[in-house]
Amino acid sequence: MSRCYSTGRSRVTTPNEDRYLAVTAKRNRRSTASDLSRQLSSATDTTVSRQTVYRRLGHIGLYARRPVRCVPLTATHCRLRLAWSREHALWAPHQWSCVMFSDESRFSLQSDSRRTFIWRAPGTRYHQENTIERHRYGGAGWLVWGGIILGSRTDLHVRSVTMTGHIYRDVILEQHVRLFRGAMGAEFLFMYDNARPHRANIVYECLQSEDITRMD
C-alpha cells in the first residue's frame, strides 16, 4: 500500500465560506482582497490571508483586473446611433469615399495610477458591471485632432489649449477641412461629433460660407 502525497495542511475555508467570498466579491466588485478577508472573518470567524482570497476567487474564475473606462450613453444616444447605422448600412464604398470623419482626443498630463481593480471573469471585460463611466478630464493636457477619409487623412494637429469655437473655425475648418472640400467638390461630406465648440454659431456660419455639407 502506497501513501498519497500530501502537504498535511488542512483547507482553511469550507465550501460555504468559498461561496460567501464569491457572492461578496460579485456584489461589490471593487472590494479588495483585504476587504473580503475582513468581511469573511466578521461573518464566520475564519481568518484568511489576501493570497487565500485570490486563490479561492481564482478557482471560480474571478480575477482582479482594471475596469474599462467609458463615456456614459443615454437611451437617446443609443437609439440615435442605431438609427444612423441602419440608415447608412447599405452605403457603397464610392459613397463613403466622399466622407471625412474627424475627432479630437485629449491626453491628460496628470498622473492616473489606475490602481482601482475589480473582480471579473474572463470574457466579461465590457459587461456593464465591469466598466467605469468617465467623461471629464482635469489638469493640464494636450489636444490632438485628426481627420480620415477613404484612402487619405489629414495631418495631426496638436494644441496645448482647450478647443474653442474660434480655434475650431480658424485652425481646423480653415486650414484642413476647407482644403479637402475644394479638392473633392460638392459631394464632400464632413462628419464630426456634437462637442460644444463644434456647435458654435461661428462654426455653422463657416460651414455655410465654405459650402461644406455636414453629415448628420
Q: Can you walk through the features of this model?
A:
The protein is α/β, with parallel strands linked by helices. Among the domains are: 15-65; 94-110 and 142-214, Nucleotidyltransferase, domain 5 (2-Layer Sandwich), CATH 3.30.420. The chain is 38% helix and 19% strand. The protein has 7 helices and 10 strands. The strands form 3 sheets. Strands 3, 6, 7, 8, 9 and 10 form a 6-stranded mixed β-sheet that branches. A two-stranded antiparallel sheet has the order 1-4. Helix 1 crosses helix 2 (33-44) and helix 2 (33-44) packs across helix 3 (50-59). The longest helix is centred in the C-terminal third of the chain and has 20 residues, at 165-184.
What's the helix and strand layout?
Blueprint: H1 15-27, H2 33-44, H3 50-59, E1 63-65, E2 68-70, H4 75-87, H5 93-96, E3 99-108, E4 118-120, E5 131-133, E6 141-149, E7 152-153, E8 157-159, H6 165-184, E9 189-191, H7 201-209, E10 213-214
Parallel strand pairs: 2-5, 3-9, 9-10
Antiparallel strand pairs: 1-4, 3-6, 6-7, 6-8
Helix pairs in contact: 1-2, 2-3, 6-7
